[in-house]
Amino acid sequence: MNRRKDEPRSHATVFIAVILAASISAGGGVLHAYYKNRQVQLTREIDAIDRRVEHSRLEIRTTEMRMDQLLNRFVIRKQLQENGSNLRPIALSAVEEIDPAPAARRSVASTAP
């Protein structure tokens, strides 16, 4: 009933199990911190990409607005007059419409004499 003093109080497997459990929980904590840090980094990258996309959209709208201003016929006419160009407006009856589709050639080449 009484235990001898020279007998070990607990087995070595208990110590091994405690060390194994502690290493597993420490590894889990490190992995959790790593994954959480990676999640924060990805969120920042996504936000940076969203900002770049919005900036690009703004640049596209600004460029389209400038193109519209430059291609305005009245502005072009005024600039031509200011530059002293020899170009003059033509009558609408002189405008000729051209079919954008090229005419199909119907020629046949022959190698026989």
Chain-wise SSE layout:
Layout: H1 12-70, H2 73-83
Explain the overall architecture:
The chain is an all-alpha fold and about 110 residues long. Helix content is about 60%, strand content about 0%. The chain contains 2 helices and no strands. The model has no long low-confidence stretch (mean pLDDT about 85).
Output the keywords.
mainly alpha, 113 residues, single chain
Radius of gyration: 41 Å
Share of β-strand residues: under 5%
Beta-strand segment tally: 0
End-to-end gap: 125 Å
Count of DSSP H/I helices: 2
What would the principal axes of the Cα set say about the shape? elongated
The ordered string of helix (H) and strand (E) elements is HH
Q: Would you tell me the structural class of the helices and strands?
A: mainly alpha
Helix content: 55-70%
Reported for the largest beta sheet, the result is: none
Low-confidence region ranges: none
Overall pLDDT metric: 86
